[in-house]
């Protein structure tokens, strides 16, 4: 019987689904359900660790004497010390494309929420205020806008498909340019990053956090954005410099920002962007 430990503390529904999905020869335990004084014993015997955002560092890896694999439940593996895992002959795996549709739909949802001012209008409605005209001049449609997609992997491609249905014109930036047949299939045009930031009405970020992408969208690049631009980050916190974004947002120049990921998670009320 394989011993698998899910490191993150999850809700009851997720726990039930994970147990249902487990193969018959595997026993899945959740770290949160193991008594504190027995966790070291269970971790030492574990064949596999499953992690969503839980930090799997070298200390934890060395503690797991029988470990064969660390399985990420999503795409980015930046919370796993891959160098230490390799040195210990422990495999690290992820599920590329597994959440592509969900994240792409979230991307479009954030764009629509900003363009149609859903958050402030809902807040006014809950206070009993009928906002008939206040936001008309600041409400926009996706149709006809230029959507710049930063990162054209599984999620970027699915986002392109959905945005195209809304009638957006698509440009993209990726570290490696896609083949011509892929560009034709998704009706996208490749442009350098700075050109994308200048031309796009909507910018969505779908990148992992690496040394190259940390602070990729800094103060200098944020100044390239159009007035009334929308910027959405569903990649990783730290790709957009939050302090710089705060300074630009203060000016009221952008239509809005949709942030799903933060440099420090969970964020707290001291974060200026809140």
Characterization of this structure:
With 274 residues, the protein is an alpha/beta fold. It contains eleven helices and eleven strands. It has a six-stranded parallel β-sheet, with helices on both faces. Helix 5 (100-115) crosses helix 7. The longest helix is centred in the middle third of the chain and has 16 residues, at 100-115. The radius of gyration is 21 Å and the shape is globular.
N to C succession of SSEs: EHEHEHEHEHHEHEHEHEHEHE
Q: How big is the Rg? A: 21 Å
Counted by DSSP, the helix tally is: 11
Structural class: alpha/beta
Which outline best applies?
A: globular
Strand order of the largest sheet: 8-7-6-9-10-11
Largest sheet: 6 strands, parallel
The fraction of residues assigned to DSSP E strands is 15-25%
Whole-number mean pLDDT: 95
**Stretches with pLDDT under 50, minimum 5 residues:** none
Helix content: 25-40%
Total beta strand runs: 11
What's the helix and strand layout?
Layout: E1 2-6, H1 12-21, E2 26-30, H2 39-45, E3 48-51, H3 58-63, E4 69-72, H4 82-87, E5 91-93, H5 100-115, H6 118-126, E6 146-150, H7 154-166, E7 169-173, H8 180-186, E8 188-190, H9 193-199, E9 202-205, H10 219-222, E10 230-233, H11 242-250, E11 256-259
Parallel strand pairs: 1-2, 1-3, 3-4, 4-5, 6-7, 6-9, 7-8, 9-10, 10-11
Helix pairs in contact: 5-7
